[in-house]
Specification:
The complex is a heterodimer of chains A (about 120) and B (about 120).
Chain A: E1 4-7, E2 10-13, E3 19-25, E4 31-37, E5 43-51, E6 54-57, E7 64-66, E8 76-78, E9 87-94, E10 106-107, E11 111-115
Parallel strand pairs in A: 2-11
Antiparallel strand pairs in A: 1-3, 3-8, 4-5, 4-9, 5-6, 7-8, 9-10, 9-11
Chain B: E1 4-5, E2 10-14, E3 19-21, E4 24-25, E5 32-39, E6 46-52, E7 60-61, E8 64-69, E9 74-79, E10 88-96, E11 105-106, E12 110-115
Parallel strand pairs in B: 2-12
Antiparallel strand pairs in B: 1-4, 3-9, 5-6, 5-10, 7-8, 8-9, 10-11, 10-12
Classes of the chains: A mainly beta (about 120), B mainly beta (about 120).
Amino acid sequence: DGGITQSPKYLFRKEGQNVTLSCEQNLNHDAMYWYRQDPGQGLRLIYYSQIVNDFQKGDIAEGYSVSREKKESFPLTVTSAQKNPTAFYLCASSTPGAGLAKNIQYFGAGTRLSVL
Amino acid sequence: AQKITQTQPGMFVQEKEAVTLDCTYDTSDPSYGLFWYKQPSSGEMIFLIYQGSYDQQNATEGRYSLNFQKARKSANLVISASQLGDSAMYFCAMREGRTSGSRLTFGEGTQLTVNP
């Protein structure tokens, strides 16, 4: 089945530790996105990539890093510089497009990150 | 300024009745797209409906319709014949043509509860 797979479903981080969240898609989409969701809040964009080997910062990129070496994969690293990483992280993908283009973003099931 | 405003933190509706979830937006870009997503308690975001800024008719998808009032900058979601499975968070989102590429800006959501 085509879709977006995020792993792990739950992740725990110790103080000073970097952790990496996985996002894989088999929808053949060029664009991929990472969002953060805090309880009772909407989604905020961390990073996005519209093509392999290129990515842009979103609204809350500080303390996070990404890579886009393959079309199917867009891993997110939560670094020790992110002082409040506890949140729900959602990955999405779409065909690239702007403005009026429908280009629906499809989402994975998310990863819940907590600090020990 | 908030680009997407959802003023109803929570809404209640009786099963089989219709419900309207409010969304207002703010943009100076003439080309934009508006999206509604549903987020069940499992966390995954599910695309419901899309409206482009130049679409002449209101979008409809099954029991979902979008009441698009461009002059008022509102894009309210109407769910007809509510079902228990409609209980979830609902998010309105916008993509602007000139300034944001393919990225979406989300509102803070409305929690809908359908009562039997």
